[in-house]
Amino acid sequence: MLGFTLLGLGLCVLVPQTFAAAGRLAEERDGRPGASDAAVARLNVFNYVGFLIGSPLVGALGDAWSYRGAMLVPMVLVLVTVVYARSFEARPDRYGGGHERPRTADVGRGSNGL
Questions:
Q1: Which has the minimum average pLDDT: 36-40, 60-64, 69-73, 102-106?
Q2: Which residues are within 8 A (CB) of 105 and not within 5 positions of it... i.e. 6 or more apart?
Q3: Backbone φ/ψ region at 91: left (φ over 0), alpha (ψ -120 to 50), beta
Q4: d(C-alpha 50, C-alpha 78), whole Å
Q5: Predicted model pTM
Q6: CB-hemisphere CA count at 13 Å for 53?
Q7: What whole-number distance in Å separates Cα of residue 57 and Cα of residue 62?
Q8: Given Cys at both, which of 9, 35, 48, 107 links 26, Cβ 3.0 to 4.6 Å?
Q9: What span, in angstroms and rounded, lies between the C-alpha atoms of 18 and 25?
Q10: How far apart are the first and last CA of the chain?
């Protein structure tokens, strides 16, 4: 019991440090003010998926099969996350890339005859 308590005390700092590191790295890499917010939001997607899908899935498989076998599911999901982690990287904005029709109209004084 003491070992699990010490493990919990040591692990409790990982999530805040991970969020801080993601924000710091995004800020250094992109150099724009909102980059850290977007990076933390992308990282938080993993938390939601793990919370909403992971625990119930492992519990249901543990009841239906065995808990030892059910623990393979989180291991596989971690491997899938590692493989697809690059898909969450920031991409440049697509607005203005030539696929939109320009829609500008000045309705005020001096509206260029519109």
A1: 102-106
A2: 111, 114
A3: beta
A4: 10
A5: 0.48
A6: 10
A7: 8
A8: 35
A9: 10
A10: 76
How many Cβ atoms sit within 10 Å of the Cβ of residue 84? 9
Write out pLDDT tens, residues 65-95.
Answer: 999 899 888 788 778 877 876 665 656 655 5
Output the six-digit token pair for 113: 């005859």
On the question of pLDDT at 55 being above 70, the answer is yes
Q: How far apart are CA 114 and CA 55, in angstroms?
A: 59
What DSSP line would sit under 7-68, residue for residue? HHHHHTTHHHHHHHHHHHHHHHHH-STTHHHHHHHHHHHHHHHIIIIIHHHHHHHHHHS-HH
- 3-class state of residue 71 by DSSP: coil
